[in-house]
Amino acid sequence: MTTTNERTGQLRGAGNDGSCKHYDLSTPQKLMIFVLSMALFGLSNILLEIVPDVHIGPIDFSVSYFVFIPLTMAALFSPFWAALGAPLGEIIFTDLLMGDFSGLSEIEGFLQMFLAIYIAGSVIRNPRSRPQIVLGALLVVFIDKLLSAVVDLGKVWIGVEEAEYVEGLPESMLVLEGLGFGIDILMSGVLFGVVPALWLIPALHGKIEPLMGMRPRVPGEPFPGRAPKSGLFIGAVVLLSIASFFFAFLEAWDVNVGAFQPEFLEEYGNGFVWISVIAIVIVTALAILFFRKAQHNADQKVDN
């Protein structure tokens, strides 16, 4: 006979005391995490599209993304599915629907953000550990922006792009990259990463997982979708990083395969963002309906 706990979210592998050595997610749960991460991160990037950047000379003071959103999804649910959904949400709901899609070169940003969220989310083994949350938030920005900076410097070194120099400041491109890296760590990593995540992740832990039919993560146990600790994974990270460099160089070489850039936001104004918002609502609603239907079918099988 199956217990009530199993129908309401205790996952496979759980023992009678609620502890477990390993558990996995069902396909509907993985899809729901993926869609929620895609929708929430896409929505946050839409908001950033209409917020003007601040420029002081050659320095750009802006927020690249809201780190706490994908980090929360990764820390509470699954790093892999959260990391897979977040950058795709930015591409679909921000770049494509806003008319600023660069084609194959978009894969660069996708791979870099995927690796950043996947690795950072896997670092948070205990969702109530403040040091782990701080490290995770900073790692997202550090990995993503480090790979991006290496790409920018590589383009100049190879000669496919001109270096940005400031008069009177030798080797200024390296200085500008360093300043930009530090600003991203402060703005995106600390202000919109560490600060909200320190409150949000512990506050939601144990409360939001049952809505997904999941058991809250127990500190110290293996959790689904985490990055493996193996040489094979490190090799995969290196290969994906190199692949991101290749797709970045496509844009520098003017290879704009699949590019779609009518710039709807500039043509129709900020009101056009509602198109993306409506698309996000529709996709999320369909995912929730599918998830509820799958849960209902699973409950019927258990009752039978």
The rounded Rg comes to 21 Å
DSSP summary: helix tally: 10
Structural class: mainly alpha
Beta fraction of the residues? under 5%
Helical content (DSSP H or I, runs of 4+): 55-70%
Q: Quaternary state, please?
A: single chain
What integer is the average pLDDT?
82
Task: State the shape.
Answer: globular
Question: Into how many domains do the coordinates divide?
Answer: 1
Strand order of the largest sheet: 1-2
Low-pLDDT windows of residues: 1-20
Biggest sheet overview: 2 strands, antiparallel
Order of helices and strands: HHEEHHHHHHHH
Secondary-structure map:
Elements: H1 4-7, H2 27-49, E1 54-56, E2 59-61, H3 68-76, H4 79-96, H5 106-123, H6 130-158, H7 172-204, H8 231-252, H9 264-268, H10 273-303
Helix pairs in contact: 2-4, 2-10, 3-4, 3-5, 3-7, 4-5, 5-6, 5-8, 6-7
